[in-house]
Amino acid sequence: MITKSNFFTAASLALALVATSSHSVAAARDYISIVGSSTVYPFATVVAERFGRSTGGATPKVESTGSGGGMKLFCAGVGTQHADITNASRRIKKSEFEKCQANGVKDVVEVLIGFDGIVLANSNKTKRMNLTRKDIFLALAKEVPAKGSEKLVPNPYKTWQDVNPALPATKIEVLGPPPTSGTRDAFAELALEGGCKAFGWIKAIKKQDKSEYKRICHTIREDGAYIEAGENDNLIVQKLNANPKALGVFGFSFLDQNSDKVHGSLIEGVGPTFESIADKSYPVSRPLYFYVKKAHVGVVPGIEGYLAEFVSEKAWGTEGYLAEKGMIPLPDDSRAEFGDNVKGLKAMTGTEALH
Prior knowledge:
Order of helices and strands: HEHEHEHEEHEEHEHHHEHEHEEHEHHHH
Number of domains: 2
Shape: globular
Strand content: 15-25%
């Protein structure tokens, strides 16, 4: 088990290495290192800025690396050369939790912070789309059912009207996040799989072969209809303005901040709004998390204060400043539960992780 005593021993050793190598990573720092989800990034940043101003100390450094990239950095090890906190727009995966354990990151505190919707947005210069999850699956899956048969074929659809005669005859062109993004994971699970399940014979595969079912329902086509646009949602908005016929995939909070430029598609007749995500009537919504390395608390200065700021009523309450930024707050009882977990630094057991 890692103790503060052997943590400082390791830090002293690393500091000695710094003196002999210009390529070494500094063993100690006076700021909090936060990595992870581009969706959670603006929320973590505003908390970091408020915390920095209130204490007069170093403002935490927040980096947008994507959920998967953040988990990789977070789980790489214990010590001040590694991140203290990682943000995620999906729950930690079992494989990631096991990687943490293998690398000595034994005690991980999980904090559910709120909810967000995933939107398929287009430019305000064009009409808002009205899609179903089945439309989304047929438009973007790598393999789709051949018409009139229970057989999969490479996706043949070129326009939205090919998918559904009620949709416009515009080319299928969707800008979205890469595989390292939690938004991509959640989009595949909630939107693509949600549409995939509309085919009963595919749904039945899940009972026989979960891996094959996931491959069918989660694999996005690679023929140019879906364009990976990195973790930069600002870039997607710029491209949607330049190409009004394209659609972009990102979180509701970013849509809310750019409502003068883009609007979100209706999904099964429901638009992405603060209210529809809060009451779960919007079909494509997901939870947001951050994870804390308990071994760094009390070693890297300020972590306790940052956590207290994040779970304060003024930040993540129903009228808090994070709600003003577009995050959908948790119900009161859930906020109380996770607030207690933070105060007590309650570590995960691993059973909570996604399989």
